[in-house]
Specification:
Layout: H1 2-29, H2 34-110, E1 115-124, E2 133-135, E3 148-151, E4 154-162, E5 167-171, E6 178-183, E7 188-198, E8 201-210, E9 220-223, E10 235-245, E11 250-257, E12 266-271
Antiparallel strand pairs: 1-2, 1-12, 2-5, 3-4, 3-12, 4-5, 6-7, 6-9, 7-8, 8-11, 9-10, 10-11
Helix pairs in contact: 1-2
């Protein structure tokens, strides 16, 4: 590009000098004699041609220089736009993280009877979080089989395997999990929550509901106080639909978990008071 600009500059200079020489020559000779007048008349069209060429070349040269400037400005603007986009994404990420921390602090203030171990999800079985996944905390961090995993919105699942540095969590969306349920509105302890597949939707199913239960759509389902495998009254989900299960003489409900498993990145393990024992009880 630099070589091209130099050649254009030389061309403009040569044409300009030639043009000035012709004008000077014809100006001195005009008015002296008929021959000079004839030469001047003859050269007038040539002068016009040189004027046109000179203007066109200067215009093109200005375009080349301006195009280079515009290109540089455009590159700089793209760079600044990319930096602003990165900062915006970073800001949103920090904002979301701050919101999650606030929610967890609020949850912990309401459930001070437990301690908590924070963990990050580092691997998903088969690329899906709905069956099992791995967290970055293990025996050296105090994690034990049977500990319950939550996030500020509700129940996530339970620890099923532990190594020194990492652990496996089986979520409530897994068909291998069973959680005793409590209907918040009626305070009924009825049914068991199990994982369920419904056209790839993230849902769970509440089975073995008593036939006389007053459970209804929109009811909030919590972990029950019966048994000691889960902390009591942790939110599980909301009832989407209910149907009669004539074969089992009861009802079945479909539940949408409060936890958004598709966006789950971190969680907390609930540490019970008897965490010194290997048999975890809440």
């Amino acid at each position: 590009m630099k070589l091209f600009k130099n050649k254009l500059a030389v061309t403009v200079i040569v044409l300009s000098v030639t043009f000035l020489v012709i004008i000077g020559y014809t100006s001195k000779k005009q008015g002296k004699d008929k021959v000079s007048n004839a030469v001047g008349v003859t050269l007038n069209p040539v002068q016009k041609v040189f004027y046109g060429i000179n203007d066109n070349v200067k215009g093109f040269l200005n375009f080349v220089f301006n195009f280079s400037d515009v290109k540089n400005e455009n590159t700089e603007l793209k760079k600044k736009n990319s930096e602003l986009s990165s900062k915006s994404i970073e800001y949103d990420s920090l904002k979301n993280e701050n919101q999650r921390l606030r929610e967890m602090l609020d949850f912990k203030s309401q459930r001070e009877e437990y301690n908590y171990i924070g963990a990050n999800i580092i691997n998903k079985a088969g690329g899906s979080i709905l069956e099992s996944f791995t967290i970055d905390k293990g025996l050296k961090n105090g994690v034990k089989v049977g500990m319950v995993a939550i996030d500020p919105k509700g129940l996530v699942g339970q620890v099923t395997d532990v190594t020194n540095s990492w652990s496996t969590i089986q979520p409530i969306t897994s068909e291998n999990v069973a959680v005793g349920a409590l209907v918040e509105s009626t305070r009924e302890t009825t049914g068991v929550v199990k994982g369920y597949r419904d056209n790839n939707k993230v849902v769970a199913r509440l089975e073995y509901i008593d036939a006389n239960s007053e459970i209804k759509e929109g009811d909030v389902i919590l972990t029950s106080a019966s048994g000691d495998s889960y902390p009591k009254e942790i939110k599980i989900g909301v009832v989407l639909s209910i149907k009669e299960d004539k074969a089992k003489m009861g009802k079945t409900a479909i539940i949408e978990p409060y936890v958004d498993f598709n966006k789950l990145e971190e969680l907390y393990l609930v540490v019970p008071a008897n965490s010194e024992n290997n048999n975890i009880k809440y």
